[in-house]
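Notes from the pairing session

We agreed to fold both candidates in a single pass and log them together. This is the raw record for the first candidate, unedited. Please don't reformat it; downstream parsing expects exactly this layout.

Candidate A
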Amino acid sequence: MASPSWLQALLNPNKNWFAKQHMKTVSQRLRNYGLRFEDLYDPKEDLDIKEALDRLPREIVDARNQRLKRAMDLSMKHEYLPQDLQALQTPFRSYLKDMLALIGGSYLDFDYTLDFVGR
């Protein structure tokens, strides 16, 4: 189901200052722990996510699991990733989107990768 154009404009960081600020905040919080946005999807809650993860190459799933373990470890220690490693993080680079498109996942309604990656 497509979103109305006013809703897309409201959620587009290029057109809405508040959406842009929210996206910067989310990006910084993900960078603090070395996570990507799609790492937050829970395969136990949605069967589409589980199926997409099952179909992905083993290296990608292993990298996801390592990011999640590192984030839990940092959180338990009340620490953040070092600044030099935070600069290398790409929180909005997608690894599940193409596979979800093949499966027909409902997560494709909102495109969160709107030209924000390089900022």
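Candidate B (folded immediately after A)
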Amino acid sequence: MPEQVAKLIGIARMAAEAPCLEPKRRVEYFELAARSYLARCDSTRVPFRWTINPYRGCEFGCKYCYARYTHEFMEMRDPEQFERKIYAKAFNAARFREELRALPVGETVALGTATDPYQPAERRYGVTRQMLEVFASMSGLHLGITTKSDLIARDVDLLKEIARRHYLRISMTVTTVDVELARLLEPMAPRPDLRLGAVRALANAGLRVVVGCAPVMPLINDSEASLDALAGAAAAAGAAVLWANVLFLKPCAYQVFLPFLEERFPQLVRKYREQYDRAAYLRGAYPEMIQERVEIIRKRHGLDRKSDSAEPEFWPRDPSFRCSMGECSYNNRYSCRNQLNRLRHTWLCCK
């Protein structure tokens, strides 16, 4: 084993040398040193520029999870290790604050893009809450938080303060309101009704919450009845928007999802192979049909891109502020503000 570790480099070696915080029957927790907490994202598919993931791996074990590939960077090729070996990032508040301060005003930051920031590890180690405490001491960013856990309601006090200082969007993932189906798809995640209860608690606290049906899976949760039931429950809970994305299957997710289909939905295996053996993303008529269906349903339930136009109470007002396009003079502020507004529209309304 020492010889094998000696051959590793970068984060793979850091993971191999990480101390075990707590071994459990199903999962092991480790502490992982963090070179940086922010990661730049240049993909045109997403409406944010920076990502933060307090943990590596996710105990929820969702069968469709696209983020399993992140454990491959640590030389862990078994896709199920993603949910069995959880790494809590060693947190340094001062260093995290410095990284955030280096961002231009109006920059977009997404928390929880390759892990769930409120998975069970958060109850033990609290890395997400520590990060939010730093956000609550600053201002001037667009922060999005994505989760499928009701634990987020624990942090309502911090989230309210963050919403006074930043543009905040909380996205709760709910793929179905069918409890039995959810348990098959997301075996360790909180029940859909618990997630919607958290949506209600956050909305009642005056926070902007959207509900995401991601992914929409052909012939599993894509029927009009299924999506309509979800939209009705989201609206009743106080969500502002319903958004949806069609399932995509990168190789790491394919390795888990196809055996799951063979066990639970064998009648669908052939159709999925025909579609996803050719490409990770579906193209053409099906995604367009789903978007049209979702658009009709969310309009029916009043979940059609409602926007919160109020500027945060402590939003920076320095006339020479830096925007995400670089340094701005006062005379150029109007055009840069327009650029920020367009970015903000994408961030708050179009998902």
